[in-house]
Design a protein that fits this description.
Blueprint (H helix, E strand, L loop, with lengths): L2 H16 L8 E7 L8 H4 L8 E6 L10 E5 L2 E5 L6 H8 L4 E8 L9 E7 L1
Antiparallel strand pairs: 1-6, 2-3, 2-5, 3-4, 5-6
């Protein structure tokens, strides 16, 4: 989906959500696996991570491997990245100041590191 179309739809839904802001409405943007688990701090912090923990999303527009790179951080430590095939809309939104939030949605002991951490991104 074209990122601009996605964000236009999200903006319309948010406007409707503002009418009910006291209910704490969240618009789920995506649910993704964490990329780069074994190359960053996620492996070292594995025992401390909990489902529901808040994550920070940080744009890395100068990243030499991916101009749409979005790092995923937990308490200031880089856990990994939003997967390359799923980061264009998030990068577009972050670059425009969209208040995106993220949290750990699932943790699983799995032999494949790419399947150990899932996170969801939403707009409140």
């Amino acid at each position: 989906m074209d990122p601009r179309r996605f964000w236009r739809i999200a903006a319309l839904l948010l406007l409707c959500g503002d009418l009910h802001a006291e209910e704490g409405i969240r618009l789920l943007v995506q649910n993704s696996p964490l990329a780069g688990f074994r190359y960053h701090a996620a492996a070292a912090l594995w025992g401390e991570l909990r489902v529901g923990d808040r994550l920070e999303l940080e744009r890395e527009p100068g990243n030499p491997h991916d101009p749409n790179a979005v790092a995923v951080r937990w308490r200031g430590r880089k856990l990994g990245y939003v997967p390359r095939q799923e980061n264009a809309a998030l990068a577009w939104g972050l670059d425009r100041g969209t208040p995106l939030r993220a949290r750990i949605s699932a943790l699983a002991e799995h032999p494949n590191p790419a399947r150990r951490v899932r996170f969801e991104v939403y707009v409140e």
